[in-house]
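Sample A.
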Amino acid sequence: MLANPDLIRATDRGLYCPPGDFYIDPWRPVDRAVITHAHGDHARRGHTHYLAARDGEAVLRARLGDIALQCVGYGESVDIGGVRVSLHPAGHVLGSAQVRVEHRGEVWVASGDYKVESDGTCAPFDPVRCHAFITESTFGLPIYRWRPQAELFAELNAWWRDNAAAGRASVVFAYAFGKAQRILAGVDASIGPIVCHGAVQVLNAAYRATDVALPETFAVGDVADRTALRQALVVAPPSAQGTPWLRRFGDYSDAFASGWMQLRGARRRRAVDRGLVLSDHADWPGLHQAIRATGAERVFVTHGYVPVMVRWLTEQGFDARAMESEYGGEQDDGAAAEETPDAAPVSTVAAP
């Protein structure tokens, strides 16, 4: 039995810790916000004070501008109103963190978004032991099981190589923050030039400022040789699909990188040549692995397939409950709308 069942609770402003009087990833303006990562549904403008992991500082400042931001290293504790708070790697994107909250001997962890497979572009997921764990469930269905990254990148490189030999550019639509950098870090840069949309280039600079190794990338205006453009790998956000910006590459083949590409319907709706099943979120086995590693006696489930995950966890003997939130899943960082297929719920039911 938890001594404080409301150490973190859902409110109309976000996940709130009453003893410390702070919020985690609030979706409305608050005085003190602890931020798990810089995706737009978790890090928003308008808060008075921000606390985040040091690895995410460059990205947060690039996205939110001049904010009152305090950064701490992973595992470093700070006291907020008598509550001990520390941030721990979530393995989602650069600077992503789980928020560990300790008060009077009780420990809760709000995971934000996470994945358990290391990708080399951010600190790998580090499970944190706790009494209560708040987990996402973006891909909380048994159908979602990710293939090894090495296989995916071997296929991507072969596709790019074949297109380059035929004089066709290879356009990959990928979310500008996180997914785009994973693709850049995983491809064989010797095949040809890599051209990035401006929205991706800004985030590439933030990654490089944090000493993440990425291959050389070019803005489209930096490549004068049209022959070279037809051999390029082009990385652009989904919002660039169908825009005049793509005409500069002439004939091209395109792909969309997302966990949602596991579904044929999602690939058809995207109207692309290929679907690359690559996600920055945990798959079905990964969610279970992470939850079990915490040793939590109670699990709160937010955004995604919440009822399915709650039911499965309950059947496994967990005290599992839904927790209401306004977080999304995988999204186009340049757009306000959620980039998920119709079948994928992106908000939870109210907590019982």
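Sample B.
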Amino acid sequence: MIDISHKNTTLRYARASGKIFLTPDTIRRVQDKTVPKGDVASVARSAGILAAKRTPEWMVFSHTLPLDWVDIGMEILDDGLKFTAEARTVWKTGLEMEAMVAVSGALLNAYDMLKPLQDDITLGEIGLEEKSGGKSDITDTFDPPVKTAIITVSGAKKKGERQDRSGHVIREFLERQSVEVVHQETLEEDQTVLEAAIHRLSDDEQIDLIFFTGSSGPQKTDIVPGVIRGLSDKLMPGIGQAMRQYGYQRTPYAMHSDQVAGIRNNTLMISLPGSSRGAEESLHAVFPGLLHLFKMLGR
């Protein structure tokens, strides 16, 4: 199976359909509800719903997900019946396979009910009609790309006493996003130095997005969140809340990180944890939806 533990839950929807081709006499029996085995629409609907729930049992790579809603509709056509399955969930991965399996289950049960009436029944045109939810729905792109800077704040890393793993992880992650990393540096934990860097990047170089990693914990020397608050024209608490919630779902230690986001001169500044794992998890929490903010700012 594909690892989806890093994904956020979002509202997902899928619709699939398929047809069973019948003679006019068989279609008439379905309409009149005179099929010996019962009401085709009701039985096929029940079968399709049950099939959707059991998708992971025979689709090898399908994840087990909480289905919030499944329904099957039947439409009578000139040459047969069309079944449509719809499904909805709030989860980490899409449910197009559940919709496809639901349609297949409905069609096969209709076939079983109608085969005593007709020898040459065929099934076909099974396919996905629509799906939504997840990263594929977020299409914010920019030309030129969002100019981004990465600032590691650590005296030990500045002196070369420790490796800057978090800075490397952040850059690697951002290379897969619709941004361009144009600046990266390491600074010591000094408020004057940090404020000067923000003035330079935001006011002079007009960087769109600045990520700070490190110096965001409970110690007196952890100054990044305070500096961001002090220099921001407007704080964006929802971004910090999203990162903390995502992190806390994975480790209780996330509660100790003061993750702050603020806007200064249309530059978004975000404090990330100093650990490489914490920094990466925080990025997963906010991308790709984070970039929509720049459209809201007129970027």
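B remarks: Residues 96-114 form the longest helix (19 residues). The chain has a mean pLDDT of 94.
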